[in-house]
Amino acid sequence: MDHTNAAKMPDNTKLEEVLEAYAKEQNKDNLSAVLNGLRYAHLFVPAVFPEGTDLTFLKEAKQGERIAIPQGITPLPSILKNNKEEQYLPLYTRKEEIPKDQKFHTILEVTFRGSYMTVLKEGSKLEGLALNPFHENVLVKKALLEKLKAQDDKMLENKKVVKLNAAQYHALVRRNMELKTIPHMLFTDGDKFTRDLCEGKEAFVCELYRSAFPKEPGAPYETSDFDFMALNVRKDLLLIRVDLPEKGLVPGLCHRVYLAWNEQAKKAYYFTIEQTPKKEERAMGRVDESGKRIDCGAAPVEGAEIQRILDLIDEEKTETN
């Protein structure tokens, strides 16, 4: 059953292209392209829970629903064995690559580094990683993974360490959520994301924020810190306003965001009302499909924000036509 433990689905289209190229022609350049694509990739691996685990939390979940795995429960990645009795950790670029007849409890989203660390840990019987084993079946063996780990370790050592206090860290995570994560989810699948948002409302948004923070000390927000409102402002336009927590609000963070979805045109829009260095002033911005923030000048008074957003949408339509 598909219970993906991930806040958003990764896009591995480019990685799939280089995997396919390498599967057809295994040369140095194609291998280099695969390794470069893997370095920061997020992939999928089916997993099971140890025998005797109380799976009540799974039974209460819906197919395809994102779940939080209870503390103290550790899923075990499914392992594949070839005809030589060699064991590999399978990694899939998308959930659809996982065979439908394979038995598992959940699908985990994992990083490439985390995956090869599993292979290389002391006592591991794994020979390496198998990428899309039922499609391209690209094997990355332990010897190569050890070289990659050495390179990654060196890069991490050379990185300048910037120490942040708790307030700075919270601001960094929150800004990333408001200007990158949420707009990315909207533009990736506007129809599904706006439906999920309208169904879950404040609780859905709060969970997005919580998922961005580590379990300890956790996110400093509760559902009551958010406010949600959805309006069918036009026949073809749904406008969602989400008011965000005032606690810890510093310049650059958002008082609220507006998400607009044109079902007919399959077009999404994302606007922000941001705090400026001057306490009483707000800035309006928008994020486009490429993830770029566009300055829209000073924000109007709160009661005129929606009209300003509609004007900006109409201006874009006029320029397009």
Structural class: alpha+beta
Secondary-structure element order, as H and E? EHHEHEEEEHEEHHHEEEEEEH
- Percent helix, as a range, is 25-40%
Rg over CA atoms: 22 Å
Report on the biggest sheet: 6 strands, antiparallel
Low-confidence stretches are none
Average pLDDT number? 88
Number of domains: 2
Write the layout of secondary structure elements.
Elements: E1 4-5, H1 13-24, H2 28-39, E2 42-48, H3 56-59, E3 76-77, E4 80-81, E5 87-91, E6 106-111, H4 112-120, E7 126-131, E8 138-141, H5 142-158, H6 166-188, H7 190-212, E9 227-234, E10 237-243, E11 254-262, E12 267-275, E13 282-287, E14 293-298, H8 305-320
Parallel strand pairs: 1-6, 5-7
Antiparallel strand pairs: 2-3, 2-6, 4-5, 7-8, 9-10, 10-11, 11-12, 12-13, 13-14
Helix pairs in contact: 1-2, 4-5, 6-7
Give an account of the 3D structure.
Helix 4 (112-120) crosses helix 5 (142-158) and helix 6 runs antiparallel to helix 7 (190-212). The chain has helices at 13-24, 28-39, 56-59, 112-120, 142-158, 166-188, 190-212, 305-320; strands at residues 4-5, 42-48, 76-77, 80-81, 87-91, 106-111, 126-131, 138-141, 227-234, 237-243, 254-262, 267-275, 282-287, 293-298. By secondary structure, it is α+β, with helices and mostly antiparallel strands. It has a six-stranded antiparallel sheet. The chain is elongated and about 70 Å long. The longest helix has 23 residues, at 166-188. The protein is built from eight helices and 14 strands. The protein has two domains: 4-158, no CATH class; 166-320, no CATH class.
